[in-house]
């Protein structure tokens, strides 16, 4: 079976480290927003076959609202940031739990 790309492992490691700190301080939503670029750079193709669908499901949740546009049609907030603004604290925690779960499985692929 094909392993996930080392890039996905390294970037997920960075993301998880940041989110753990935020979870301890109760500022998960703000930290998710500040780390939102990871959801744009870690593409599903970087994952093993068993994890592609799971990462795609995380992306579909975190991008569901689409970009926020101004009255002139300019992007004010990208899809990830705009969606996070609309998530409850509980929804943020569920999303982070999914990211942790995927990370644990990617990590096992490299051990």
Keywords:
2 strands; mainly alpha; two-stranded antiparallel ribbon; 111 residues
Question: Short summary of the structure?
Answer:
With 111 residues, the chain is mostly helical. Helix content is 67%, strand content 5%.
Return residue spans where pLDDT drops below 50 for at least 5 consecutive residues: none
Roughly what fraction of the amino acids lie in strands? under 5%
Largest sheet: 2 strands, antiparallel
Oligomeric grouping of the chains: single chain
Number of helices: 6
Question: N-to-C SSE series?
Answer: HHHHEEHH
Radius of gyration: 14 Å
CA-to-CA gap between the ends? 14 Å
Lateral arrangement of strands in the main beta sheet: 1-2
Overall residue-averaged pLDDT value: 92
The residue fraction in helices comes out at 55-70%
Number of beta-strand segments: 2
Q: What spatial form do the alpha-carbon principal axes imply?
A: globular
What structural class do helix, strand and pairing data support? mainly alpha
């Amino acid at each position: 079976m094909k392993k996930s790309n080392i890039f996905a492992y390294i970037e997920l490691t960075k993301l998880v480290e940041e989110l753990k700190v935020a979870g301890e301080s109760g500022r998960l939503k703000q930290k998710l927003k500040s780390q939102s670029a990871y959801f744009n750079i870690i593409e599903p193709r970087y994952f093993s076959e068993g994890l592609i669908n799971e990462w795609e499901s995380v992306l579909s949740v975190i991008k569901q609202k689409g970009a926020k546009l101004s009255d002139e049609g300019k992007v004010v907030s990208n899809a990830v940031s705009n969606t996070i603004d609309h998530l409850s604290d509980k929804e943020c925690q569920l999303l982070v739990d999914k990211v942790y779960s995927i990370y644990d499985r990617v990590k096992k692929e490299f051990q």
